[in-house]
């Protein structure tokens, strides 16, 4: 198998795939849909608002017409994963977490909806930081009584240096007992998003595949390269009655015939 060079470049170069930007709650995500979270699961505690599948379907992707809260439980910790992209610590905020709450003027924080966040720093999850969603002024597309709220996250706040990346975010969702069960979370998108660097193993596989396509001549191409065959297909070769007849026809019996030590790639 030989990977087309364009696909290989798309794997290695961020943004070369040409994704259309996506705008959510007044934020523009240059990497498009890819910028958003790709998986989510409950790692501890209890959340009765949605089941596991509901947690995942709510937090994956750019859709902000859905949300969940703790339900009647005491709360839990949800781990969100970015798979086809990673968050990178670039200039300013790197990640936006969206949640839904009652109508408020843009810029108004809603302390009833506080929750905790932590970002994997390469060796572990630093202590949770409590954050307060702020009204964006944009309405919930599915419920006109609600607005879109946002929390901006800078990876530098979690010890990740400029240019550093992370693919895991944990959310501590709990009832703040302020008249709302908890934050009503809906989506996470990376403002600064990169295609993850391929692992060493993937690079080795790519190298082997590319090497297979570029450096490993087929038996037919070798026959053509050395002038032993003028046809271009296996069919042409299959019509040959034998290598001796072929070489005799090409007048190459002798000096250019592969030596006894030559081995074909097969
Ligand atoms: Ca993604
Ligand atoms: Ca940053
Ligand atoms: Ca959602």
Textual characterization of the structure:
The protein is α+β, with helices and mostly antiparallel strands and 266 residues long. It has 2 domains: 5-194, Sandwich (Jelly Rolls); 217-257, no CATH class. Helix content is 20%, strand content 28%. The chain is built from 6 helices and 14 strands. The chain has helices at 5-12, 52-59, 200-215, 219-225, 234-238, 243-250, and strands at 22-24, 27-29, 39-46, 75-81, 86-88, 95-102, 115-119, 129-131, 134-140, 143-153, 165-166, 168-174, 185-190, 193-194. A hairpin with a 2-residue loop joins strand 1 (22-24) and strand 2 (27-29). The longest helix has 16 residues, at 200-215. The structure holds calcium ion (3 copies). One calcium ion binds at residues 58, 63-64, 66, 186-187.
């Amino acid at each position: 198998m030989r990977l087309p060079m364009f696909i290989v470049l798309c794997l290695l170069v961020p943004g070369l795939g040409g994704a259309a930007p996506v705008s959510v709650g007044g934020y523009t995500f240059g990497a498009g849909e890819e910028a958003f979270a790709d998986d989510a699961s409950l790692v501890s505690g209890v959340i009765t608002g949605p089941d596991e599948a509901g947690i995942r379907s709510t937090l994956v992707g750019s859709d902000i017409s859905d949300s969940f809260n703790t339900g009647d439980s005491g709360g839990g910790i949800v781990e969100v994963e970015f798979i086809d992209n990673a968050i990178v610590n670039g200039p300013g905020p790197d990640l936006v977490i969206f949640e839904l709450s009652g109508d408020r003027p843009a810029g108004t924080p809603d302390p009833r909806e506080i929750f905790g966040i932590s970002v994997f720093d390469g060796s572990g999850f630093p202590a949770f930081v409590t954050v307060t969603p702020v009204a964006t002024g944009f309405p919930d597309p599915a419920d006109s009584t609600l607005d879109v709220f946002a929390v901006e996250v800078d990876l530098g706040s979690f010890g990740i240096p400029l240019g550093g990346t992370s693919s895991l975010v944990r959310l501590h969702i709990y009832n703040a007992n302020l008249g709302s069960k908890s934050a009503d979370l809906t989506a996470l998108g990376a403002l600064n998003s990169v295609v993850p660097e391929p692992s060493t193993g993937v690079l080795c596989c790519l190298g082997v595949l590319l090497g297979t396509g570029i450096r490993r001549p087929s038996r037919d191409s070798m026959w053509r390269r050395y002038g032993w065959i003028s046809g271009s297909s296996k069919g042409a070769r299959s019509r040959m009655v034998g290598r001796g007849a072929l070489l005799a026809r090409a007048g190459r019996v002798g000096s250019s015939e592969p030596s006894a030590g030559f081995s074909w790639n097969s």
